[in-house]
């Protein structure tokens, strides 16, 4: 039964490869798998407290000359958190958060405040639809599963 | 698709050219504006998925059976009360009529409806409901597209009228050259995915417009009628008509089949055996896998090389749109070529086992075993898109195909519930699809090998190569998922 021996050998080898692969890949991800801890530039959220207080994250977006100041922001939150956005624009435009389908009218000199409960996980584009400049990406909202 | 077509569908503002987007594809938010994009599968799930693939592969090999079991279809007709009417004339006429109506709605709404792609029936219907939905229906219920095929239905009416007048069927002037096999269909499918994945993007300035879809449908209709007129209706449906061949490929996985007007059942998966025997059957499977891989890769794994080559083309003096299209076309070709290469390497390796048939025969013999993998790729990559867009299809797009505010069926107020499935749920479906596809593909390959090699031992040895190919494809699929939208 030479083929059986060969087969067993291969099986062991591949199991070893699988285990090695698993260890290598899961190593750098330890933190993510146990807490899905969110790290964000903008907010310090009390992730540790499991009690009633839901955490909130905020982001300021300034649209000037057809582009967001400071580039397209990336905001990452955990499902269930509250996201607060303050948006200003130097022109009339439509503000749109895809997926959540939130739409607001932006006007020059006004601060538009949007509060959203992040209860759908996934990745969502935050955009302005300007009449002169078309679609302007403002931010990317990533909602990690809780 | 996310990047191009779904940008088009989701924003609905494709008409104006965004200045920011013109500068670089990445600012055009390379990840397009699908309402909700999938999160990349996390590393731990990737690792579990890959490990599981290896473990089940070898578990399969060790419990392997020694005589082929899936090589004969063993078709048997159903005798139940529904079997006859389902495959009968009335059902066929109704299905054909529905197909013709839907083709008409696609063309009409494309030409006359709103420019906003997300509110126009044509785009979502063609690229989601039809292109993805019929794959699903084919796998479940067999070759249903044959009944719904609008071109076949129209041609048959025409042929019937011809018979009434002339007293004989319209003659097919040319015998279809057998060595062409599925080549016209493969070219058709490449053209379709090119329209979907390459043409629709173009630096976000010009997206795929409903009107373009309507015109493409009309052009394809004309081509199909020419093919049918030259080679005969049935012959062209069997070999040349892209959608018929593409959906039939997936229907080989189904246990249901209509033969001679009778609905029957066959051994599940057994119909995949002969898929590669017609020339270019193999090409059809590999193109499908390649196109889905390309679409997955352009949102993740290939994003930065594609940006580099795009910049390079721009530096050569190409305009944004042409640079974008050329770039995506070349990368699409590269990915498809890579898929061919991986398969060829596996076949070459298998050929080193003594008692192997010639490489060409071997390559064709195992073509059908990749169909489950092609299906798994489609499920993993497109099922959320399907889930979301079908909600639009059966609510506002159904009631208001032109996007002019009419409410034909009272479903205009409906919309897409993006919260239908959690990110975890999405991941498990994606990884699950790849693993199940992998197991089925391996099962088929093992069975095929037993039929081809004289001795069980040789068959097993040949399968180490096939296993490497399949593990390669499945891990590639997992990798693309782990990079998507990252």
Question: Topology of this structure?
Answer:
The complex is a heterodimer of chains A (about 150) and B (about 475).
Chain A: H1 2-27, H2 30-35, E1 56-64, E2 67-68, E3 73-78, E4 82-89, E5 93-97, E6 102-106, E7 111-117, E8 122-130, E9 134-144
Parallel strand pairs in A: 1-4, 3-9
Antiparallel strand pairs in A: 1-2, 4-7, 5-6, 5-8, 8-9
Chain B: H1 5-11, H2 19-23, H3 43-62, E1 76-77, H4 83-87, H5 89-112, H6 121-130, H7 133-141, H8 145-148, H9 150-166, H10 183-199, H11 210-231, H12 233-239, H13 242-251, E2 256-259, E3 262-265, H14 281-298, H15 303-315, H16 320-351, H17 359-365, H18 371-393, H19 396-399, H20 423-452, H21 456-483
Antiparallel strand pairs in B: 1-3, 2-3
Helix pairs in contact in B: 3-20, 3-21, 5-6, 5-9, 5-11, 6-18, 7-13, 10-13, 10-14, 10-16, 11-12, 14-16, 14-18, 15-16, 16-21, 18-20, 18-21, 20-21
């Amino acid at each position: 039964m030479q083929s059986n021996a060969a087969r067993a050998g291969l099986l062991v080898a591949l199991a070893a490869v699988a285990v090695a692969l698993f260890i290598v890949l899961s190593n750098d991800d330890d933190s993510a798998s146990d807490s899905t801890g969110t790290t964000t530039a903008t907010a310090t959220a009390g992730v540790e407290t499991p009690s009633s207080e839901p955490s909130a994250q905020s982001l300021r977006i300034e649209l000037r000359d057809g582009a967001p100041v400071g580039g397209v922001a990336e905001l990452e939150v955990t499902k269930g958190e509250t996201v607060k956005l303050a948006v200003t624009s130097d022109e009339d435009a439509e503000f749109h958060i895809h997926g959540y389908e939130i739409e607001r009218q932006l006007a020059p000199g006004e601060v538009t405040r949007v509060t959203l409960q992040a209860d759908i996980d996934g990745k969502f584009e935050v955009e302005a639809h300007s009449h002169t400049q078309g679609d302007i990406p403002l931010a990317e909202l990533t909602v990690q599963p809780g | 698709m996310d990047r191009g077509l779904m940008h088009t569908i989701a924003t609905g503002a494709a008409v104006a050219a965004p200045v920011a987007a013109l500068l670089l594809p990445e600012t055009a938010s390379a990840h397009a504006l699908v309402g909700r994009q999938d999160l990349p599968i996390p590393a731990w799930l990737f690792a579990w998925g890959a490990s599981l693939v290896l473990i089940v592969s070898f578990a399969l090999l060790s419990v392997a059976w020694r005589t082929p079991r899936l090589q004969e279809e063993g078709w048997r007709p159903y005798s139940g009360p529904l079997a006859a009417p389902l495959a009968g004339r009335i059902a066929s006429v109704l299905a054909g009529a529905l197909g013709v109506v839907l083709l008409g709605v696609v063309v009409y709404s494309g030409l006359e409806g709103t420019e906003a792609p997300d509110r126009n029936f044509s785009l979502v219907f063609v690229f989601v409901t039809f292109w993805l939905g019929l794959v699903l229906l084919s796998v479940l219920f067999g070759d249903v597209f044959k009944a719904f095929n609008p071109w076949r239905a129209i041609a048959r009416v025409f042929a019937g009228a011809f018979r009434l007048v002339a007293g004989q069927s319209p003659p097919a002037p040319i015998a279809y050259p057998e060595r062409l096999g599925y080549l016209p269909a493969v070219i058709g499918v490449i053209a379709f995915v090119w329209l979907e994945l390459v043409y629709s993007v173009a630096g976000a300035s010009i997206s795929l417009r409903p009107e373009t879809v309507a015109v493409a449908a009309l052009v394809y209709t004309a081509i199909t009628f020419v093919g049918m007129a030259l080679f005969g209706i049935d012959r062209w449906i069997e070999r040349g008509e892209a959608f018929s061949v593409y959906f039939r490929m997936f229907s080989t996985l189904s246990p249901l089949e209509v033969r001679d007007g009778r609905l029957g059942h066959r051994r599940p998966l057994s119909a995949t055996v002969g898929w590669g025997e017609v020339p270019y059957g193999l090409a059809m499977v590999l193109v499908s896998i390649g196109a889905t891989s390309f679409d997955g890769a352009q949102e993740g794994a290939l994003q930065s090389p594609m940006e580099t080559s795009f910049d390079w083309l721009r530096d050569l003096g190409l305009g944004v749109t042409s640079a974008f299209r050329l770039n995506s076309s070349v990368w699409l070709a590269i990915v498809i070529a890579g898929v061919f290469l991986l398969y060829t390497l596996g076949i070459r390796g298998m050929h080193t086992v003594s008692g192997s048939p010639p490489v060409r025969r071997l390559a064709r013999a195992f073509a059908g075993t990749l169909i489950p993998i092609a299906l798994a790729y489609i499920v993993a990559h497109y099922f959320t898109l399907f889930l979301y867009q079908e909600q639009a299809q059966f609510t506002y797009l159904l009631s208001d195909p032109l996007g002019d505010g009419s409410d034909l069926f009272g479903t205009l107020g409906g919309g897409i519930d993006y919260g239908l499935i959690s990110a975890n749920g999405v991941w498990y479906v994606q990884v699950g699809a790849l693993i199940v596809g992998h197991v089925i593909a391996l099962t088929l390959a093992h069975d095929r090998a037993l039929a081809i090699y004289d001795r069980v031992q040789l068959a097993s040895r040949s399968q180490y190569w096939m296993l490497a190919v399949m593990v390669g494809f499945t891990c590639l699929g997992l990798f693309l998922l782990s990079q998507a939208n990252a």
